[in-house]
Amino acid sequence: MIVSIPVYDEVDLLGVSGPQEVLKLVPDLEVRLVGGSVDTSVVTRDGFRFLATHSYDDNTQVDVLWVPGGNPNAMAPIMNRGGDGHYLDYIVRTAENARWVCSVCE
Question: What CATH superfamily classification does 2-103 receive?
């Protein structure tokens, strides 16, 4: 089973680290942190830095799409299809075939 967590700068740390920590305990389950590109550095709202393990360009079908919340001001540009659009395109494309789509917000 594959769980995809799309990440971006100013994401909430707990929305990423909580599921990552718990789901890594499940046998035969892979958690993917999906960002602009593989090894992209992502900085959370609180300044914690980590690397994406996969890219928004990845077309692998996933079982669970886990969408974390974040700073609304940081989300506005990535949600705008007139902007770079990769984040929103990834969400739409991946959600179409995922078994479950979940979100976390504050």
Answer: Class I glutamine amidotransferase (GATase) domain (3.40.50.880)
